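Reviewer comment 2.1 asked that we show a complete input and output for one of the modelled complexes. We chose the nicotinamide-adenine-dinucleotide case, as it is the one discussed in the main text.
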Amino acid sequence: MTDLNGKHGLIVGVANKRSIAWAIAEAASRAGARLAVTYQGERLEENVRELSASLQNPLILPCDVTSDQQIADVFTRIGQEFGGLDFLVHGAAYAPREELAAGFPFVQTSRAGFNLTLDVSAYSLIALTRGAVPLMESRGGGSIVTLTYLGSERVFQNYNVMGVAKAALEASVRYLAADVGQKNIRVNAISAGPIKTLAASGISGFSSILQVYRDRAPLRRNVDTAEVAAAAMFLLGPAGRGVTAEVLMVDAGYHATGM
Ligand code: NAD
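Response of the prediction step:
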């Protein structure tokens, strides 16, 4: 089992107990890490505080990733409380619901919807990595993991502008990895199979995507958040020390399926 004793991590992207980022937080905490967990806006604060009560002495902080000030405040607090940072989990994503609705023509993607989706779902990884780098450098290195989906490479019905954001996110993983690698900071993505979460509920026809995976993925089933968290432990912990700039598929093998 991954040992994260004495390590400090930042988890961005917990909305509720079904969040993939929450499963990773639980696994990291079980492995011995002390965590900072952020919430997006007051609406989610209580959820995140209640959930985090099961963690070891967590630091709970507000962070809307569209705000440079809130991002800066997060890293200031982490510097004060933890004195450094060993890992970052990025699980923030958003697209306007109407642009993922059944029958929405991708060609109608609005400029505002595009900008907001790319800002929250892709640019935020760059901004958070920038904030994390000095704190990770002080520890001699670190590991950053974000969450993506195969819709970055292939067309999935109704995934629309989120697919474009995931393509930008995966390219950002590679450019960030190249930029911060000399500081012994690794940057990777996990491409998860479909899982019923709050974010997934915004994608029209999501249940039929789940069914297609059950029918066609090599493992003939879907994955769950604990399986994504297990892969994250590999990338965050010492076993993944030689891995960076990678998109690791945790999707029951679906990505390899042609027909
Ligand atoms: P989720 O709804 O639990 O998590 C999405 C998170 O993004 C929420 O915590 C939300 O608060 C946060 N967020 C949205 N806008 C934000 C903002 N402006 N500032 C800060 N945070 C913001 O759903 P999830 O499925 O656990 O999603 C986590 C990640 O996993 C996302 O990147 C998602 O695209 C990715 N992913 C999900 C699936 C799936 O099928 N559920 C598959 C592959 C990848």
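Helices lie at 20-30, 42-52, 68-82, 111-137, 160-180, 206-216, 225-236. We note this here for comparison with the apo prediction described in Section 3.2.
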